[in-house]
């Protein structure tokens, strides 16, 4: 009975009073103290007084400001970026921004503008970006031209504009982006294009406009960074109209809901009379696909045929020696050899991602591409029992290889011997069957990034990562370790050059305190979404200056002797853990508050116990773990009872002693 009473009294003595410190949330969300604020969709009719005068970036969309004038934002003179999307603005008055000299971006998207005063945009000394998308503009004369000398991008998409003829005094000398997508432009004249003569390296976007005619010579001798004519029904009209122009990137793709014409060899005749580096023809259909289709493609450096309903590329294509990048994503090849890679001997980048059929890698299909540096074969249902030397024969300069999201691949010893210069290898979500006792990656001495996430790896194979002398980034997310533990000797200890290690979602229960021994160069460790407890903190003792992600684990209490292992890290995330906010964890809670500058995810780092504090942010909890008034009372009673017990015990012993003399 006495021990039970003693335990009860001790529990009472250690009872704690808890206090929650709450802070009132401001109406606007603060993203960066005193600089960046989000006030979107709050039903505001004016700028709230809670915003500091030092605000530089303000997102104020989806509120109600039918008229904006010089007093609307007069207090916020430091504004750099202002987003007023869908604020039901009808009127922009004179000198609205006259005191905002640093303002460089104004977003008026989705406002039904009726009037913009000639001087409405005066004031900013470096206004560079103006968004007037979906504002109901039908004539470019509507746009005030005062103070647009430094304008770099003008976005006019989704309006009712039928002509791109800019006002005579419209300054274009610094213009880099002019966006007319989804308007009603059907004809482009020489006068329209001549108005853009002062602009250099301009990107023009006509996507969603059904261009039916271009005046001959309109683009003669003109140079553009990019032109986009996506969704145009007749590409031959576009290409003939662009004769004698120079374009770095020409986007001629179409969209799912566009009923355009099938492309033939005749469609591309205009391409022979222009200089283009890159063309995108995504989602088009080809009629009579043959080597002659590519007759005017010989000067191309990049060709994108994504989702072009292709089952193969014709053999016998000639003259494509300048092509460096070929994109064949989302087509329907049965075998990789059907792309006839030998027709493109200078390729450095090849993408066959998301093939619509199960893709057979075949043998030696790419052996003529000895200059290939980047190869993406992800999401293509590739399956191979013996990968990958025969399939990737003669690719000595390959640096990037993506085989992620495929079917099971069997890897033999030195599986990538034909690609000794690989720097990045992505095998995520591809079941790897490692058949050899040694590492299948052992000849990849230049490999810097290896993604093995969700590969169903045998993590007990300590030789799996041997000889990866320069590996900096390793992702083994979603793989499982024996008994849910990373032991003292493990596959990670052979990669001492690691800087980033991702071990999230590995069902980890514990980590041996010497598991990361020898990984002193590591700066980023992600252990989120496991079941680790506070006792595993000792494993971080050999590591310093880490970004350490421990979010969504099973950490309740972190013992005081393990806090130094956390203190030596640079950034720590402990969010979404069932943290104990009682006096049993007072040392950690005290440390937490003293190190808030090192912690991220503060809003999601909350108490789980006791029930009265469940859901309260750890930074808002104040524990008082000294003796309470009730505790002092019980202490006095406890001491009094102990004294009485001692007196009776002494009397009993003395009486017993005298009785037995």
TrEMBL record:
<comment type="similarity">
    <text>Belongs to the Toll-like receptor family.</text>
</comment>
<dbReference type="GO" id="GO:0005886">
    <property type="term" value="C:plasma membrane"/>
</dbReference>
<dbReference type="InterPro" id="IPR001611">
    <property type="entry name" value="Leu-rich_rpt"/>
</dbReference>
<dbReference type="GO" id="GO:0005730">
    <property type="term" value="C:nucleolus"/>
</dbReference>
<keyword id="KW-1133">Transmembrane helix</keyword>
<dbReference type="GO" id="GO:0006954">
    <property type="term" value="P:inflammatory response"/>
</dbReference>
<dbReference type="GO" id="GO:0050829">
    <property type="term" value="P:defense response to Gram-negative bacterium"/>
</dbReference>
<dbReference type="Pfam" id="PF18831">
    <property type="entry name" value="LRR_11"/>
</dbReference>
<dbReference type="GO" id="GO:0034142">
    <property type="term" value="P:toll-like receptor 4 signaling pathway"/>
</dbReference>
<dbReference type="GO" id="GO:0031666">
    <property type="term" value="P:positive regulation of lipopolysaccharide-mediated signaling pathway"/>
</dbReference>
<comment type="function">
    <text>May cooperate with MD-1 and TLR4 to mediate the innate immune response to bacterial lipopolysaccharide (LPS) in B-cells. Leads to NF-kappa-B activation. Also involved in the life/death decision of B-cells.</text>
</comment>
<protein>
    <recommendedName>
        <fullName>CD180 antigen</fullName>
    </recommendedName>
</protein>
<dbReference type="GO" id="GO:0005654">
    <property type="term" value="C:nucleoplasm"/>
</dbReference>
<feature type="domain" description="LRRCT">
    <location>
        <begin position="577"/>
        <end position="626"/>
    </location>
</feature>
<keyword id="KW-0399">Innate immunity</keyword>
<feature type="signal peptide">
    <location>
        <begin position="1"/>
        <end position="18"/>
    </location>
</feature>
<feature type="transmembrane region" description="Helical">
    <location>
        <begin position="632"/>
        <end position="654"/>
    </location>
</feature>
<keyword id="KW-1003">Cell membrane</keyword>
<dbReference type="InterPro" id="IPR032675">
    <property type="entry name" value="LRR_dom_sf"/>
</dbReference>
<dbReference type="GO" id="GO:0001530">
    <property type="term" value="F:lipopolysaccharide binding"/>
</dbReference>
<dbReference type="GO" id="GO:0046696">
    <property type="term" value="C:lipopolysaccharide receptor complex"/>
</dbReference>
<dbReference type="GO" id="GO:0002322">
    <property type="term" value="P:B cell proliferation involved in immune response"/>
</dbReference>
<keyword id="KW-0391">Immunity</keyword>
<comment type="subunit">
    <text>M-shaped tetramer of two CD180-LY86 heterodimers.</text>
</comment>
<dbReference type="InterPro" id="IPR003591">
    <property type="entry name" value="Leu-rich_rpt_typical-subtyp"/>
</dbReference>
<dbReference type="GO" id="GO:0032497">
    <property type="term" value="P:detection of lipopolysaccharide"/>
</dbReference>
<keyword id="KW-0812">Transmembrane</keyword>
<dbReference type="GO" id="GO:0045087">
    <property type="term" value="P:innate immune response"/>
</dbReference>
<keyword id="KW-0325">Glycoprotein</keyword>
<keyword id="KW-0395">Inflammatory response</keyword>
<dbReference type="Pfam" id="PF13855">
    <property type="entry name" value="LRR_8"/>
</dbReference>
<keyword id="KW-0677">Repeat</keyword>
<keyword id="KW-0675">Receptor</keyword>
<dbReference type="GO" id="GO:0002755">
    <property type="term" value="P:MyD88-dependent toll-like receptor signaling pathway"/>
</dbReference>
<keyword id="KW-0732">Signal</keyword>
<dbReference type="InterPro" id="IPR000483">
    <property type="entry name" value="Cys-rich_flank_reg_C"/>
</dbReference>
<dbReference type="InterPro" id="IPR041281">
    <property type="entry name" value="LRR_11"/>
</dbReference>
<dbReference type="GO" id="GO:0072686">
    <property type="term" value="C:mitotic spindle"/>
</dbReference>
<keyword id="KW-0472">Membrane</keyword>
<keyword id="KW-0433">Leucine-rich repeat</keyword>
<dbReference type="GO" id="GO:0001875">
    <property type="term" value="F:lipopolysaccharide immune receptor activity"/>
</dbReference>
């Amino acid at each position: 009975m006495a021990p039970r009473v003693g335990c009860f009294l001790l529990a009472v003595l250690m009872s704690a009073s808890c206090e929650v410190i709450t802070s009132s949330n401001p109406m606007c969300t603060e993203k960066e103290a005193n600089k960046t604020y989000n006030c979107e969709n709050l039903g505001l009719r004016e700028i709230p007084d809670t915003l500091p005068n030092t605000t530089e970036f303000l997102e104020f969309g989806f509120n109600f400001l039918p008229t904006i004038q010089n007093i609307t934002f007069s207090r916020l003179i430091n504004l750099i970026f202002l987003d007023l999307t869908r604020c039901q603005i009808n009127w922009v008055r004179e000198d609205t921004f006259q005191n905002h000299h640093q303002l460089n971006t104004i977003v008026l998207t989705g406002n039904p503008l009726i009037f913009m005063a000639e001087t409405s945009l005066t004031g900013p000394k470096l206004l560079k970006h103006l968004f007037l998308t979906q504002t109901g503009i039908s004539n470019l004369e509507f746009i005030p031209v005062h103070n647009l000398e430094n304008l770099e991008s003008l976005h006019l998409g989704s309006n009712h504009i039928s002509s791109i003829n800019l006002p005579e005094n419209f300054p274009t000398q610094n213009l880099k982006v002019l966006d007319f997508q989804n308007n009603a432009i059907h004809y482009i004249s020489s006068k329209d294009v001549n108005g853009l003569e002062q602009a250099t390296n301009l990107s023009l976007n006509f996507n969603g406009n059904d261009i039916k005619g271009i005046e001959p010579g309109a683009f003669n001798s003109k140079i553009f960074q990019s032109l986009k004519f996506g969704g145009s029904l007749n590409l031959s009209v576009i290409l003939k109209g662009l004769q004698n122009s120079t374009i770095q990137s020409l986007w001629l793709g179409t969209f799912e809901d566009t009923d355009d014409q099938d492309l033939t060899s005749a469609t591309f005749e205009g391409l022979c009379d222009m200089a283009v580096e890159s063309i995108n023809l995504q989602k088009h259909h080809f009629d009579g696909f043959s080597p002659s289709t590519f007759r005017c493609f010989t000067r191309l450096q990049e060709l994108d045929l994504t989702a072009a309903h292709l089952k193969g590329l014709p053999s016998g294509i000639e003259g494509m020696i300048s092509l460096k990048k070929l994109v064949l994503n989302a087509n329907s090849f049965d075998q990789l050899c059907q792309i006839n890679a030998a027709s493109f001997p200078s390729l450095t980048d090849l993408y066959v991602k998301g093939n619509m059929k199960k893709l057979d890698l075949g043998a030696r299909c790419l052996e003529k591409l000895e200059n290939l540096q980047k190869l993406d074969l992800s999401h293509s249902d590739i399956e191979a029992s013996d990968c990958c030397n025969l399939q990737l024969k003669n690719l000595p300069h390959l640096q990037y290889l993506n085989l992620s999201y495929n079917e099971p691949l069997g890897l033999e010893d030195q599986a990538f011997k034909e690609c000794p210069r690989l720097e990045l290898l992505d095998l995520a979500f591809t079941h790897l069957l490692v058949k050899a006792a040694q590492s299948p990656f052992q000849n990849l001495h230049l490999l810097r990034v290896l993604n093995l996430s969700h590969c169903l790896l045998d993590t007990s194979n300590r030789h799996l990562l041997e000889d990866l002398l320069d590996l900096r980034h390793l992702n083994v997310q979603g793989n499982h370790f024996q008994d849910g533990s990373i032991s003292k000797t493990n596959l990670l200890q052979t990669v001492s050059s690691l800087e980033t290690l991702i071990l999230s979602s590995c069902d980890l229960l514990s980590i041996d305190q010497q598991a990361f021994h020898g990984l002193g160069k590591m700066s980023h460790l992600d252990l989120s979404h496991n079941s680790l407890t506070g006792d595993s903190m000792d494993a971080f003792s050999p590591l310093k200056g880490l970004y350490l992600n421990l979010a969504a684990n099973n950490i309740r209490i972190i013992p005081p002797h393990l806090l130094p292992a956390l203190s030596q890290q640079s950034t720590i995330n402990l969010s979404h853990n069932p943290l104990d906010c009682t006096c049993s964890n007072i040392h950690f809670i005290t440390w937490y508050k003293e190190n808030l500058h090192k912690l991220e995810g503060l809003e999601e780092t909350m108490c789980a116990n006791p029930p009265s504090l469940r859901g309260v942010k750890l930074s808002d909890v104040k524990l008082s773990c000294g003796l309470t008034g009730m505790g002092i009372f019980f202490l006095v009673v406890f001491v009094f009872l102990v004294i009485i017990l001692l007196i009776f015990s002494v009397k009993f012993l003395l009486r017993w002693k005298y009785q037995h003399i």
